[in-house]
Write a structure and sequence with these properties.
With 42 residues, this protein is an all-alpha fold. It has one domain. It contains two helices and no strands. The N and C termini lie far apart (30 Å).
């Protein structure tokens, strides 16, 4: 059950990211990814 919840959360977040890519543009999306990666590393 927990795995299913994680998968559904992951899928919805990915879909949200794809929508953001379309609205923001690829360059802004890459910047967001780099910022998120820095926060996750810390």
């Amino acid at each position: 059950m927990q795995l299913n919840n994680v998968w559904s959360l992951g899928i919805t977040s990915v879909l949200g990211l794809l929508n953001n890519v379309r609205s923001l543009g690829l360059n802004d999306f890459v910047k967001c990814l780099q910022i998120c990666a820095k926060h996750n590393n810390v």
